[in-house]
Write a structure and sequence with these properties.
With about 450 residues, the chain is α/β, with parallel strands linked by helices. The chain is about 45% helix and about 15% strand.
Length: about 450
Amino acid sequence: MNRILIVDDEQSMRELLSILLRKEGYDVVTAENGATALKAVQREIFDLVITDLKMPQFDGMALLKSVKEVSPDTIVIIITAFGTTEGAERARSLGAYDYIGKPFNNDEIKLVIHNALEKRHLRKENILLKREIESRAGFEYFIGKSEPMQRIFSLIRQVADTKSTVLITGESGTGKELVARALHTHSSRKNNPFVTVNCGALPETLLESELFGYMKGAFTGAVSNKQGLFEAANGGTIFLDEISATTPALQIKLLRVLQEREFKRVGGTADIRVDVRVLAASNSDLRQDVSKGSFREDLYYRLNVIPIHVPPLRERKDDIPLLIDYFLKQLSSGREPKKISPEAMNRLLSYRWPGNVRELENAIERLNILASGDTIGIDHIPDTISAAQPCTELIPLEIPEAGVDLDRLLKNAEKTLLLKALDKSGGVKTEAARLLGLSFRSFRHRLQKYDQGS
C-alpha cells in the first residue's frame, strides 16, 4: 500500500484529499503545516507528498526542498490556487513531479498520482533488479532430490509466510542465498523488494551507511541525504549475507532494527520505522563467534529464531547428477546438451567438492568447453579432481611390488590435510592454517596449487 502525506493549512482540503485517496486504497497521513510535515518525513517513509504552495512560515516550496534533501526518492506534487509559469518551472527545478492548480478535477489528480507512483515503482524496481542480477549466486533454482534437500524444501514451505527471522548456515557455495530467495518468493511479501547485502564485502563505515542511509554532511562526501537499504526493502525482505563479518558496533544497530523495527540514518536524529523481514546467513559457526566474544549473544538469538542449515555437496551426492544435467542444459544454448560418460560421472561423484555447488558449476562449464565432442569423458576430468581421492593412510605400511608414485602420494596427502583443516575450521583459512602449523600465506599458496584457493 502506497503511503501519501497531504499537507495543507485548510482542513477542508486535507479532508477532501484524504477521503478521495483512501477510496483509491492509499494509506493517507495529513499535516496542517510544513514544519509538522517535515518532522513526519524525517520519522517515516512516504512514497508521495501532496503539499499546498501558500502556507504560513514554511511554504510548499521550502517543504519541497527539505523533503528532497531528507528523502530524495519521495515524490512531491504541489497544488496551489496561485499558480504561475515561473512557479511551476521553479518547482520542477527543485524536484517536484507536478504543479497543479486549484480547483482541480478529482479524476485528473488521481491520474497524476497513479502515474507518479507507477514511475517511482518502476525506478525502484529497476534499481533492485540490477542489484539482484549482480548478486545472483551462479545458479537460478534449487536442484535436489536428496533427503537433506527435501527437508529444506519442506521447512521453507512451512516458515516462508511468517514474520520470523531466519538464520541460514552452511559452507560457501552451498546456496544459502537461494534459500533466502525461496523464503521471500513463497511469502506474502513476494511482490515487494528482496534486497541482498554482502556484509563481508564492505568496510564497517560504508556498510553502516549502505544499510541505514545517511544525512547530508554526515561525513566527507555526503553531499545529499541518501536512503539506506533497509528503507529500500520496506514492505519486503532484506538478506544479510556473511552476518558474522559485522563489527560489534554495527551489531548493536542491527539488534535495534530487529527489536524495534526502527533506526536512525548516519548523522540523523529522527527514527525511521520500517516493515522488513530480516534473513541472515553465515558460513561460520556463530555460536563459536559468540563464545569468542566477536558476535553478540543477544543478536545471535534474535537471528536464530528459525535455523536452516544447508548441507555441503559431499553430504548430498544424489544431487550431483541432477545439478550436472541442469548446468549442461544451461550451457547448451538451445543445442543438444553434452553427455557425461559413466566413468567421468563416477569420478565427479567421488570428488569432495569443497567449493560445493559453485565449484561444481565452474567445473562443468570448463568441461563443456574443453570436450570437443558430444560426450565428456574421463580424459577431460582435470588432475585436481582425478587426484583428489581420500587419503586414508599418509604412509603405506608396506611398499607393494609394483612400487608407489611418491609425488602423487605426497600431493594427495597434502591436499587431504589441507581440506580436512579447512573443513574443521568451517572454511576459515586463518584457523585452518593454525591447525596445520602454517602461516596464512603458506596455507593459501598450498591451497592454490590445487585450485581451491578462490
